[in-house]
Each structure stands twice: as structure tokens, then as C-alpha cells.
Amino acid sequence: MPRKVEIIESYIVDDNDYHWFDNYDELIRCKNCVYFTPEKSGEHWNICRFYDAPKTADGYCNDAEPKEKVNGK
């Protein structure tokens, strides 16, 4: 089944022209991370168990780990 993936990429900007440089990894949103715990109260903020701090569902960080691994990777 196809799925949407967000990729972290970098570009070099030269006179308002973007030149692709490299892609680094998949961007994992908080709602797709193993450390994310939705609040049952329906509030805008939820809890990140990694940082023990509030996060939004569409937030992200460099310590995110996907809930589901694709093809065992």
C-alpha cells in the first residue's frame, strides 16, 4: 500500500536558484513516532515520552522513531 513520506533535503542557493545538494532521512512527525502519547482530553498539546514534554501532533524532532518500520528497516 502506498504511503506519504516526507524527506529532509538540503539545497544550495545561488542567485535565487536552488540546486539540490543532498537528502538525509525521512522526517518523522510526532503523531507517527513511538514516543508520542495523545492526550485523551482533546487538548492541542500531547505528550512526548522521550522528552517528557508537550508536543503537537504535526511537530517533529531529531530523536523521532517511526511507529512502524517499513520492510524490516
Computed over alpha carbons, the radius of gyration is 16 Å
Structural class: mainly beta
Query: Strand order across the biggest sheet?
Result: 3-4-5
Beta-strand fraction estimate: 35-45%
SSE ordering: EEEEE
Q: Tally the helices: what do you get? A: 0
According to DSSP, the number of beta strands is 5
Helix content: under 10%
Termini separation comes to 17 Å
Main beta sheet: strand number and arrangement? Answer: 3 strands, antiparallel
Q: What's the shape?
A: elongated
Q: Regions with pLDDT < 50 over 5+ consecutive residues?
A: none
Mean pLDDT: 83
Strands, helices and their partners?
Blueprint: E1 6-14, E2 17-27, E3 36-37, E4 46-48, E5 53-55
Antiparallel strand pairs: 1-2, 3-4, 4-5
